[in-house]
Amino acid sequence: MKKTLKLSVLWLARALGLFGLSRRLTRSKLRILCYHGGNIGDERQFNPLLFCSAEHLDARVRWLKDKGFTVVPLDAAVDGLATPQARPALPVVLTFDDGWYSTYQALLPVLARHGVPSTLYLCTQYFERGNPIPPVVLNYILWKSGKSEIDLAGFGPGIDGHHVLADRPATRRLVEALVEQLDAIADPAANRALVERFAAAVGVSAAELDLGSRRFDYMTPDELARIPGLGCAIELHGHVHLYPVGVPQRLKDDLAACAAVIRGQGLPEPRHYCYPSGDYDHNAHAALQEIGVKSATTCLPGLIDTATGRDVSYLPRFLDGERIHALEFEAEMSGFSDFLKRLAGRG
What is the rounded distance in angstroms from the CA atom of residue 35 to the CA atom of residue 323? Predict the structure, then answer.
C-alpha cells in the first residue's frame, strides 16, 4: 500500500511537469549511480538490488540519454566537484560494485553499445580466490530451496542440526559458519563441491544451482584486463568486503592490499574508493587523504552541487536495481526526490 501511494504521488508529479522542472533546476548537479551484477539465471528474483538484467540497464541508459543527461567518467567528475558551472548538462556517473562475472558478461556490453564510460569498484580478495562468492551463493541456495525449516548433518559444529529459516539471526549464524568453511578451502573444485553438497542437502540440485554459468563468480584476470576496453575504469572496493569501523590503520592496510592486486593486473593506480555495504565512519576522510585516495562513495542517495574537503570522502550515490520502479528512478535522477527530502528536512 505504501509503495502504491508513493508511485501514485510520483506519477502525478511527473504528469504535472515537476520532474522536468526539477531537472532544469538541478541541471548542474552531479548524480552517481550504483549497480552490481548482471542476471544470468534467476538471480534478479533472489536479490533484485544485487543483480539486474541487461534489459533493465539498457532502459535506464536510454532514459538518461533521452532526457539529456551526460554520462561522465568518475575521475573527471571528481576533478570538477568544486566547479559545478564547468560541468556538462545533467552529469551522471555510472558505477559497479564488487567485480561480478555477470557485470562483464551482461552489463558492460550494454554501456559499450551506448558508448558511455563507467567505473568498477573491485573487491580483490574474492577476485583472487576465484570461487563462488560464499555469502551470496549460500543465501541463494536457502532462497531457492523454498523451505522454512532444514535439517543438516555432516557439515560440522555450528552447521549440523535443525534450522528454522524464519529465525534470521540464527540463519545468519548458519551462513557465517558455512562461509568460514568455504573461505578455508582454496582448491576451486573442493570449494564448489562443498557448495553443491550443501545445496543438495536442502533440496537444490546441481543443475538448478548452475555453478557452471559462473553467475556467482567474479571476473577472471583475463576478463578484468579487457574491461578498460569497454570504457570501464577499475577502482578500490577494499581487499576484504568489510569496512573496519574505528580502525583507520586497518582501512589504509586494506586499501593498500586492494591497490596492489589491481596494479598487479597491469592496471592504472586506483584513486577512488567505494565503502563496502556503504559502511563508513568519521575516520575515513583523514585515512583516505593520507594514502592519496581522491574520493569515496556511499550508498546514500542525493545530488552533488559542490564537494570540497571532507565531503569528497562521503559522496552520495543512488543504488539502482530491479526493485526500483521506473518512476522512483526518474524521480531520483530528475532531482524531484531530493527536493522532497529537503522539503521534509532530510536533505
Answer: 12
Angle at 42 between CA 39 and CA 45, to 5 degrees: 95
Integer-rounded Cα Rg, in Å, for the chain is 21
Alpha-carbon distance 48 to 60, whole Å? 15
- The number of beta carbons lying within 10 Å of the beta carbon of residue 209 is 23
Please name which of 244, 241, 277 lies closest in space to residue 258, comparing C-alpha atoms: 241
My answer on whether 164 and 188 are in the same domain is yes
The predicted-structure confidence for 211-221, as pLDDT tens digits, reads as follows 999 999 999 99
Q: Which grid cell sits at 276?
A: 563496502
User: 310: which 3 cell numbers?
Assistant: 571532507
Residue 344: pLDDT above 80?
no
CATH (domain of 241)? 3.20.20.370
For 219-253, what is each residue's pLDDT tens digit? 999 999 999 999 999 999 999 999 999 999 999 99
Query: Is residue 347 over pLDDT 70?
Result: no
Q: What would the grid cell of residue 298 be?
A: 556511499
Residues 185 and 333 grouped into a single domain = no
H/E run at residue 119: strand 118-122
Q: How many beta carbons lie within 10 A of that of residue 150, not counting itself?
A: 18
**CB of 88 closer than 8 Å to CB of 72:** yes
The enclosing H or E element of 12 equals: helix 2-15
Domain housing 286 = 18-129+218-303+319-343
334 lies in a domain? yes
β-bridge pairing 118-122 and 232-236:
parallel
What is the value of pTM for the model shown? 0.96
**What DSSP letter does each residue of 227-245 carry, written as one string?**
GGGGTEEEEE--SSS---T
> What amino acid occupies position 131?
N
For cell 544451482, what's the residue? 209
Number of domains in the chain: 2
- Positive or negative, the Cα torsion across 43, 49, 50, 52? positive
Please report the sign of the dihedral spanned by the C-alpha atoms of residue 156, residue 157, residue 160, residue 164: negative
